[in-house]
């Protein structure tokens, strides 16, 4: 790697999409990467369809977003199209300034607890974990192999969603099932959204003017997928998602916590297959199952118009949030802050207000005027008298991946 190689390309490969960001890390050794600069961002969606779309924004030149549509047959074609867009802005993948490519990998099991340079041994282990992440790890592997083919000389780094949660004690990570069966099939709570929880908990500490080691934070990552974590002194001690991203909070299309016997009941009484139950709980449940919408903005609009199904869906969503805030307050013992993040957490003021309402005895409150402010900056929305700070902290998973990648290859 050359001395002026300070750029990191971050790739997030989904089953039919490819998100990317190119960042110049510059002097990005601060806790929140203040020295980093985004050069380009983009998204390729509907890969494998005739209506594929690539949206590319060259931030380095202040250019406007360029969109192209048409068939992009696979991830290899998608990454080549991205490389062409970057090259058109003088940011090509053949640049000597590119230090590494960082890949989001959803499931790293217990083996991968830190960012890892990818080789064939690492890839085989990621493949071995496909049964516990069948929707995510195969797409991540495809993205890695495609990037390796384009730049075989460049370090490729895997940053794992599960890594931040590997600090959980066994009392939080273990399910109460037969130990031999659990160990034989790697059944335990792994947790997800780890890069977001790591970034947001650290930024929350900074917002409070303290070191991460001095702060206990409950992080609520609320997007279409949603998860909560209890972070004590910068280390995760509990999280809501489990073996898969299905467990925990009510989500856009996932049920979250549910009696496991519901699956047996659906098989015996409704005659549903394992695949049908899987699709029901992962894709047809949560908010969309309750009211037919998984967009919180639409749900709030319907509530304002008097829609009872939307109102019930919202109440169930908030009820589950309150349960986890209370539970993690008990786990941590002392809470310094509750931090809302991700699409819903950052933008849906009614969700934040409802989730904290009635928790005054826990030292939590929301100031209505502060909560109504829209901003891209981390901010407190609790009144000065509140014992526990309530914060809105925009997440930046791509920056977190870029920081971890750059730190590894320059160590």
What's the helix and strand layout?
Elements (H helix, E strand, L loop, with lengths): L6 E7 L3 E8 L12 E9 L7 E5 L8 E4 L5 H14 L9 E8 L10 E2 L2 H9 L8 H14 L5 E5 L9 H4 L5 H6 L9 H14 L8 E7 L3 E7 L2 E5 L21 H9 L4 H10 L2 H6 L4 H9 L3 H25 L4 E5 H6 L1 H8 L11 H5 L6 E2 L8 E4 L4 H13 L2
Parallel strand pairs: 1-6, 6-8, 9-12, 12-14
Antiparallel strand pairs: 1-2, 2-3, 3-4, 4-5, 7-8, 9-10, 10-11, 13-14
Please give a structural write-up.
The chain has 411 residues and is an alpha/beta fold. The protein contains 15 helices and 14 strands.
Observed structural traits:
6-stranded mixed β-sheet, alpha/beta, 19% strand, 411 residues
Which band does the percent of strand residues land in?
Answer: 15-25%
Radius of gyration: 21 Å
- What would you call the quaternary organization? single chain
The SSE string, one letter per element, is EEEEEHEEHHEHHHEEEHHHHHEHHHEEH
Low-confidence stretches: none
Largest sheet: 8 strands, mixed
Structural category is alpha/beta
Summarize the amount of helix as a percent range. Answer: 25-40%
How widely separated are the two ends? 12 Å
Quick one: how many beta strands?
14
**What is the molecular shape?**
globular
Q: If you average the pLDDT, what whole number results?
A: 93
Provide a count of the helices.
15
Strand order of the largest sheet: 5-4-3-2-1-6-8-7
């Amino acid at each position: 790697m050359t001395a002026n190689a300070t750029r990191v390309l971050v790739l997030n490969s989904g089953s039919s999409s490819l998100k990317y960001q190119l960042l110049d890390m510059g002097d990005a050794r601060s806790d929140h990467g203040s020295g980093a600069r985004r050069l380009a961002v983009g998204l390729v969606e509907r890969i494998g369809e005739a209506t594929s779309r690539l949206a590319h924004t060259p931030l380095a030149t202040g250019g406007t977003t360029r969109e192209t549509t048409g068939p992009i047959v696979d991830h290899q074609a998608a990454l080549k199209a991205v490389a062409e867009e970057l090259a058109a802005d003088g940011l090509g993948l053949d640049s000597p300034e590119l230090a590494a490519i960082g890949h989001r990998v959803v499931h790293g099991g217990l083996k991968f607890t830190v960012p890892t340079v990818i080789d064939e041994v690492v890839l085989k282990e990621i493949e071995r974990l496909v049964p516990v992440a069948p929707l995510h790890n195969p797409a991540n592997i495809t993205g890695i192999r495609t990037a390796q083919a384009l730049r075989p000389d460049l370090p490729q780094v895997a940053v794992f969603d599960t890594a931040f949660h590997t600090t959980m004690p066994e009392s939080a990570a273990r399910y109460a099932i037969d130990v031999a069966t659990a160990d034989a099939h790697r059944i335990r709570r792994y947790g997800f959204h780890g890069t977001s929880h790591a970034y947001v908990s650290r930024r929350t500490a900074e917002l409070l003017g303290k070191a991460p080691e001095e702060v206990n934070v409950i992080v609520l990552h609320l997007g279409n997928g949603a998860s909560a974590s209890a972070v004590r002194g910068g280390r995760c001690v509990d999280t809501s998602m489990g073996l898969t991203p299905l467990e925990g909070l009510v989500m856009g299309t996932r049920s979250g916590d549910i009696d496991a016997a519901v699956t047996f009941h659906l098989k015996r009484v409704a005659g549903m297959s394992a695949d049908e139950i899987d699709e029901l709980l992962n894709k047809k449940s949560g908010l969309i199952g309750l009211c037919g919408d998984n967009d919180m903005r639409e749900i709030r609009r319907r509530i304002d118009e008097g829609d009872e199904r939307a109102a019930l869906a919202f109440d169930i969503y908030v009820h589950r949030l309150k349960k986890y805030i209370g539970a993690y307050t008990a786990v941590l013992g002392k809470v310094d802050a509750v931090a809302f993040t991700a699409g819903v957490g950052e933008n849906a003021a009614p969700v934040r207000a409802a989730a904290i309402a009635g928790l005054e005895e826990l030292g939590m409150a929301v100031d209505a005027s502060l909560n109504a402010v829209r901003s891209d900056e981390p901010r407190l929305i609790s009144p000065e008298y509140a014992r526990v700070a309530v914060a809105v902290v925009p997440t930046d998973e791509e920056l977190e991946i870029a920081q971890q990648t750059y730190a590894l290859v320059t160590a």
